[in-house]
Amino acid sequence: MHDLMHDMARHVMGDDCSVIEPGKDVVIPYGVLHLSSSCPGSIFSPQDLEKLASLRSVFMYGNMNEDSISHISNHMYLKVLYLPEVLPDLIHYLQNLQVLLLYSCQKLRELPESICELKKLNYLNLSHSSIEALPGSIIYLQNLQVLLLDSCPLPKLPEGLRNMKNLQRLEIGYSLRHLPLGIKELTSLRTLSMFPLSNNSGAKIGELENLNLLEGELQIVPLENVESLSEAKTANLKCKRNLQSLMLRWSGIRPWDPKGSMRIAHDEEVLEGLEPNTSLKKLEIFFYMGKSISPSWMDGLRNLIEITFYHCKNCEHIPPLGRLPNLRVIHFSIMDSLKCLCDDKENMLDDTSNMFLCLQKLDIYNCPNLVSLPSNLPKLEALRLVECDRLLSLPDQIQSFRDLNKLVIINCELLSKRCEKEIGVDWPKISHIPNIITDSPG
User: Fold this and answer.
1) Which residue among 27, 337, 358, 391 is least packed, with the fewest CB closer than 10 Å?
2) Half-sphere exposure (Cβ direction) of 263: Cα atoms closer than 13 Å
3) What b/e sequence results for 207-223 when a residue is b if at least 16 CB atoms lie within 10 Å of its CB, and e otherwise?
4) 3-state helix, strand, coil in the chain (%, to 5)
5) d(C-alpha 280, C-alpha 278), whole Å
6) pLDDT value at position 91?
């Protein structure tokens, strides 16, 4: 990766870029604008530092000598800085700094309060660092547009986050317990990777209502902290036309927990209220406790390409997925109560030729009560069946699935025997498939 970055730097910046690599002589021309180093413990002499007076960007891929790091603070023209280890105490001297990259900075636990003096900073990446707290002064970075905090042990954000009106991209991780009140005022937000919900503090789901510029992926967790159908509707997901991927996640619950039975009706109500825009491409539902996944809006997701159901152990009925014209990928995982992949309406139809017209990948894991598969999958390319003990056979029509090039059958006791090479009852149905993986003796 470092070699690639160095090559890109040379290509884009030409003679204005100086690249320092292990085992090679350090030659720094006067007036160099961009510096990249992957040498551990890089030390720059006073003469080198004089040559670097006009620096615009610094990328340090190895540990840098602390004295050299402190001298970086004197480079008033510096706009881009990447450091993998520590942050100079005098970082606030870099008044023209626009991009500060501290991702994977494992020694970094906190930022100095003086960070607020970087008035021109618009991009701050702290992802995969060890940052445990953000200073309250960070809210005064009024030009900050991108704040990346994913995979950090960060439990909360500053309460005044609502003041960062120009923030367009906010990426956070699972360690964050809730968002601060007032997140609804950040109407310029285009990326909000996750909306964590608390049952006693922080922003409620209704603060999503007017964040209608959101695009890309959004995760909402955990949804048991949404009280009702009416509260779920306040998220106004239907008006978020640019949202491409939506994860709706509840918390897992132990089988003996009495809250499980109370959540059945609750989860079904909340799901009904979380209607997304019809432009959605990907939908994931995790740890849902309802007996039926049948929101009234599912039929309208005509642009949906991929759907995942994970650990929905009570679910007996699923929506009419076969009628979604662009659906290409389906994942079912740990669906203890699911018996059939078609809903009742689809089962009553005599003509199923218009079902699953675009489906290319069907992945089914740990569905112990599943007894049948759809019979018409004309575009299917990959079928994976794992731990489906009651699945007795494959549909006869599988012989006509000409695009099917991969079949995986693992820990499906009855089906594995039927698909045993050369001697299994279902072998003639599948012998045309190029890649077959089973745990049968053959």
Assistant:
1) 27
2) 23
3) bbeebbbbbebbbbbbb
4) 25, 20, 55
5) 5
6) 84
Quick one: 422 exposed, middle or buried, by C-beta within 10 A (0-12, 13-18, 19+)? exposed
CA-to-CA distance for 391 and 389, rounded, in angstroms?
6
DSSP state at residue 164: -
Distance CA 343, CA 319 (A): 6
- Where are the alpha helices (H) located in 17-86, listed in sequence order? 46-51, 66-72
Predicted pLDDT at 354:
75
Q: What is the DSSP letter of 180?
A: P
* Cβ proximity of 178 and 199 under 8 Å: no
Instruction: Give CA angle at 315 (311, 319), nearest 5°.
Output: 110
**C-alpha distances out from residue 437 to 304, 372, 384, 401, 415, Å:** 29, 20, 9, 17, 13
Which one-letter DSSP state was computed for residue 159?
A: G
Tens digits of per-residue pLDDT, 36-92?
Answer: 766 655 555 556 666 666 778 877 765 555 555 556 666 667 898 888 777 877 788
- Written in H, E and C, the secondary structure of 113-131 is HHHHHCCCCCEEECCCCCC
Q: What are the tens digits of pLDDT across the range 242-256?
A: 999 999 999 988 766
Determine which helix (DSSP H) or strand (DSSP E) holds 382, and give its type and residue range: strand 382-386
pLDDT value for 258: 72
Q: 29 — phi, psi (to 5°)? A: -75, 155
- C-alpha closest to that of 35 among 100, 3, 80, 98: 80
Token pair listed for 420: 């045993």
Decide: 263 and 238 in contact? Cβ < 8 Å.
no
Of the chain, the end-to-end C-alpha distance in Å amounts to: 43
DSSP 66: H
* Closest residue by Cα to residue 319 from 310, 305, 329, 307: 307
Average pLDDT over residues 98-123: 93
Whole-angstrom distance, CA of residue 143 vs CA of residue 268: 42
Whether a cis peptide bond, with omega within 30° of 0, leads into 374 is no
The dihedral built from the CA positions of residue 232, 233, 238 and 240, taken in this order, carries a sign that is negative
Mean pLDDT of 226-231: 97
CB atoms within 10 A of CB 258: 7
> By C-alpha distance, which of 204, 281, 207 is closest to 241?
281
